[in-house]
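Could someone model flavin-adenine dinucleotide with this protein?
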Amino acid sequence: MIDFKNTQIAFEAKTNTDLQRAKFLFNSIKHPWIVKLGKCFVYVTTKLRLPVAWVLKPTIYKQFVGGETLKKCTPLANQLAKYNLKCIFDYSAEGGENADDIQQTFDEFISSIDYAKGNDNVAYAVFKPTALTTDALLEKASAKAELTDDEKKEFEEFKNRFEKLCQRASDNDVRILVDAEDYCFQDAIDEFTDEMMRKFNKKRAIVFTTFQMYRHDRMPYLDRLYNDAVKNDYTVGMKFVRGAYMEKERERAKQFGYTDPICPTKQATDENYNNGLRYVIEHIEKFEVFAGTHNEESNRVLADLIDTHNLAHDDKRIFFSQLYGMSDNLSYNLAHEGYNVAKYIPYAPVKKVLPYLIRRAEENTAIAGQTTRELELIKTEIRRRKRDKK
Ligand SMILES: Cc1cc2nc3c(=O)[nH]c(=O)nc-3n(C[C@H](O)[C@H](O)[C@H](O)COP(=O)(O)OP(=O)(O)OC[C@H]3O[C@@H](n4cnc5c(N)ncnc54)[C@H](O)[C@@H]3O)c2cc1C
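Reply:
Sure, complex below.
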């Protein structure tokens, strides 16, 4: 059985200094008040246009971000390759919604697809559909509200950009993940992603939809997708995550008086996630699977399913994935056992990636046990190295 507590393997790429930095960081962000203070500090310094890079770059940025540009991330990709780990470079700048911002982000998505072409170190490209248009439009389209003529034109432009990214990925033979975000945007995104899968996934999965398994309506949808793939002869690209917006979604549902889309309990989400994994492995002839999770049990469930279905550990259709800077005990130990693993690596200049960094800090504070787990593993490895040196 795979040992996720093997810290020697988990941290073999880390120097003692890296470990001390990570220990300091996780020790700090386990306190909600420090995260709140950090958020205020970042807000004030950016408002006053004061430099923040000097304090963030060697600390939280270094832990969770690959670099400012794709080119600057290349040494990291080469280093991870030594440990059988692939990369997914995620342009994580959170820009505005004007035409220039949208165009600039779109161009960067194209660059990341080109960067992945024929690059053995890169497993997938990725993009956020919400970066291709305005939130207001996606929300309206998802609610099936009547669009004005201008909005219809804007929506066509959105679909046009979306399709161009899928087309470029297909031309380059690069698999592309379509990230999922808020519930209120998701119907329009799902519908178009399904269309793209029907178009581009004839020979193999190029386009991957994302299912947030904290949603209680995803299993019936999974079944519908499978039947559609059988009927229309294509492969479903399926990225599973639990979902990152639970509190916001619950509040919004309450505020607007619709049924909460999220499973009632953590256990229900966990069961839903693992049932999704079981379903796709049982129907693997019509799926390619990407399991994005830091949950030890779910990683184990997938590893066991691969074994019980007599699939090769490195079956090209199945990938595990964790965010860069988190859960290396899962990534490195899985890769060590020959499974396909990719680290999700955000990149962008410091200023543009601030909202992402704040979310990472908040998530590590909010998800019970996440930071404690990271800290315990880091401390164990520091102790092990000291002991073995004696
Ligand atoms: C590679 C990768 C890619 C990702 N891409 C996306 C993406 O495109 N879209 C996105 O939304 N997120 C994405 N995420 C984040 C992901 O959705 C989770 O927020 C995060 O990974 C924590 O969940 P977990 O599976 O790692 O494990 P855990 O820590 O075991 O689970 C925590 C999650 O369980 C759920 N949960 C917690 N409490 C409850 C409760 N009381 N009731 C119901 N459910 C509960 C929530 O979803 C919470 O985030 C990604 C994560 C990874 C690793």
